[in-house]
């Protein structure tokens, strides 16, 4: 398989027109057709139905398209990155985070790509998973990290990054804080601090509180506010294990670890990856997510920032 | 030199031993794949000596990014494609490269091995084989395509590996089952390919001693000073 063959195929796939594809690739139509045919031979099947009025992708063409699109973007991204580096262009990257995903998760990957992408401007945006999918398709958000996601359009690429459990976060002076594990009965009797708009709440209710909703006396849409309430002894926060905590709080496992979820990375298929997006996706697909989400983040200052769950615009470099 | 010869011998010995241990089914699948690769002439599109090697930016097993421009900043770059941690021939090659790693350092050459696998697989392989090599993940096979060594598994081979429990879609984070032909390229500081070993028979790998000899030739040809290295 050769790069120019891939480029020809993607040009046809994107235009569904051999003449326009040849113009885009700056080659003659016979040369383009020959390149696509050679690729078809190597891939063991037809990629494109060539009909007079209707040129369209075969099932094989549809199957290989997303991967080849990303591969070409990656290759071209290296050249683009060098060019943009010279031109000192701004490289925006908007990352969508579901409410249950802490910004702490993306800090290390962002810091890594900032080393190679000049002018990186990151925007972090918190929305529900379904809204994030809409924003991805609209091109407002470049990539998103979500937990469980029920309906995902075919056009969304989706990589499972890691699994994590939910834990009980509470003050060391809480009456349950001395236990090694919080039992289900004790949890159902305790006051739980309600995270408004939490995407994982239905799952928590189903698995931990099947008969009656938790005792929700206090609530907030900000994780940081809930943590302050917990630190003051107002109740327990149920949080994903990666979530940074105020130093004044402790986390305990829940009996039987009933709630687990997978953290997933989403991006849109068939959309040209920018160098920043390409680099982020690569780093995300390789890094060891099982590491504690940056123990330095557990300091009070970073904890405040990261636990806030706020939509954050990082205009200045992360130190 | 003796060490290199011994290692080369070991690599060959391992190959012979692994080939002798193949079951009839495995041997059939092996023969079928190699015949198919030769018939379709997949390797004909691979980079050759004198070609410009496309640059790349890939993550290592810790998610740190490495650019080829930087990797060849102080000396030649050796790019070795392997098929994955499930392949015993690849693992034998990685061990052999690990054994002469210091030789690469002394020649100021950077050796990187490119894996088509993602997630924690390259990390686990490094740990299990105690590798101190730079293992990069060729995410979505972009570099294998640009070096002309990627192919899509024929249906018979795919069925064979699937029966053995290998799910390359999951291992690569992709729906399509593709693999690189194992290959080794020596790229000079200017980004020009100075050595290319591309062998459709995936049981045959370039001997580490041959790679080192190529690097010595390169060092000799690029220096006006008498070479510090002896053949």
TrEMBL record, chain A:
GO molecular function: DNA binding; DNA-binding transcription factor activity
UniProt keyword list: DNA-binding, Transcription, Transcription regulation
Pfam families, A to Z: HTH_1, LysR_substrate
Domain of life: Bacteria
InterPro entries hit by this protein: LysR_HTH_N (IPR000847), LysR_subst-bd (IPR005119), WH-like_DNA-bd_sf (IPR036388), WH_DNA-bd_sf (IPR036390)
Transcription regulation found in the keyword field: yes
Keyword Transcription regulation carried by entry: yes
Function: NodD regulates the expression of the nodABCFE genes which encode other nodulation proteins. NodD is also a negative regulator of its own expression. Binds flavonoids as inducers.
Record family assignment: Belongs to the LysR transcriptional regulatory family.
Protein name (record): LysR family transcriptional regulator
Source organism of the structure: Bradyrhizobium nanningense
């Amino acid at each position: 398989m050769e790069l120019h063959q891939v480029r020809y195929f993607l040009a046809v796939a994107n235009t569904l027109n051999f003449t326009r594809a040849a113009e885009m690739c700056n080659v003659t139509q016979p040369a383009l057709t020959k390149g696509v045919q050679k690729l078809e031979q190597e891939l063991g099947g037809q990629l494109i139905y060539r009909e007079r009025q209707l040129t369209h992708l075969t099932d094989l063409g549809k199957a290989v398209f997303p991967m080849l699109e990303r591969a070409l973007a990656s290759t071209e991204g290296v050249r683009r990155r060098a060019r943009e580096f010279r031109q000192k262009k701004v490289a925006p990257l908007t990352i969508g985070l579901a409410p249950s995903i802490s910004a702490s998760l993306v800090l290390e990957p962002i810091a890594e790509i900032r080393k190679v992408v000049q002018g990186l401007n990151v925007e972090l945006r918190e929305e529900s998973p379904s809204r994030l999918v809409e924003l991805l398709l609209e091109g407002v958000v470049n990539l998103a990290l979500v937990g469980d996601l029920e309906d995902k359009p075919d056009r969304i690429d989706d990589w499972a990054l890691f699994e994590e459990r939910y834990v009980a976060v509470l003050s060391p002076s809480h009456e349950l804080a001395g236990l090694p594990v919080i039992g289900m009965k004790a949890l159902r009797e305790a006051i739980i601090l309600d995270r408004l708009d939490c995407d994982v709440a239905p799952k928590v209710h189903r698995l931990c509180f099947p008969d009656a909703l938790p005792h929700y006396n206090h609530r907030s849409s900000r994780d940081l506010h809930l943590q302050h309430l917990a630190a003051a002894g107002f109740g327990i926060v149920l949080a994903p294990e990666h979530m940074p905590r105020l130093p004044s709080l402790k986390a305990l496992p829940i009996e039987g670890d009933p709630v687990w979820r997978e953290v997933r990375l989403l991006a849109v298929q068939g959309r040209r990856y920018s160098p920043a997006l390409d680099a982020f996706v690569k780093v995300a697909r390789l890094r060891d997510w099982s590491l504690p989400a940056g123990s330095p983040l557990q300091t009070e200052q970073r904890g405040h920032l990261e636990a806030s769950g706020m939509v954050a615009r990082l205009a200045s470099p992360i130190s | 030199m003796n060490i290199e010869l011994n290692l080369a011998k070991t690599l060959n010995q391992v190959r012979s031993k692994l080939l002798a241990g193949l079951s009839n089914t495995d041997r059939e699948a092996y023969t079928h794949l190699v015949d198919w690769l030769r018939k379709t002439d997949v390797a004909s599109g691979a980079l050759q000596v004198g070609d410009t090697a496309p640059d790349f930016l890939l993550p290592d097993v810790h998610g740190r990014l490495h650019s080829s421009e930087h990797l060849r900043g102080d000396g030649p770059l050796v790019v070795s494609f392997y098929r994955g941690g499930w392949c015993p021939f690849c693992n034998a090659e990685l061990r052999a490269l690990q054994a002469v790693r210091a030789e690469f350092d002394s020649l100021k050459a950077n050796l990187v091995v490119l894996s088509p696998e993602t997630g924690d697989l390259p990390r686990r392989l490094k740990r299990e084989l105690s590798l101190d090599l730079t293992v990069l993940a060729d995410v979505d096979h972009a570099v294998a395509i640009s070096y002309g060594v990627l192919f899509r598994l024929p249906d018979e081979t795919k069925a064979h590996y699937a029966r053995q429990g290998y799910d390359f879609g999951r291992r690569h984070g992709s729906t399509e089952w593709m693999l690189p032909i194992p290959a080794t390229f020596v790229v000079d500081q200017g980004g020009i390919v100075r050595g290319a070993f591309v062998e459709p028979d995936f049981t045959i790998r370039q001997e580490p001693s041959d790679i080192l000899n190529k690097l010595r030739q390169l060092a000799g040809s690029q220096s006006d000073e008498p070479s510090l290295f002896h053949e």
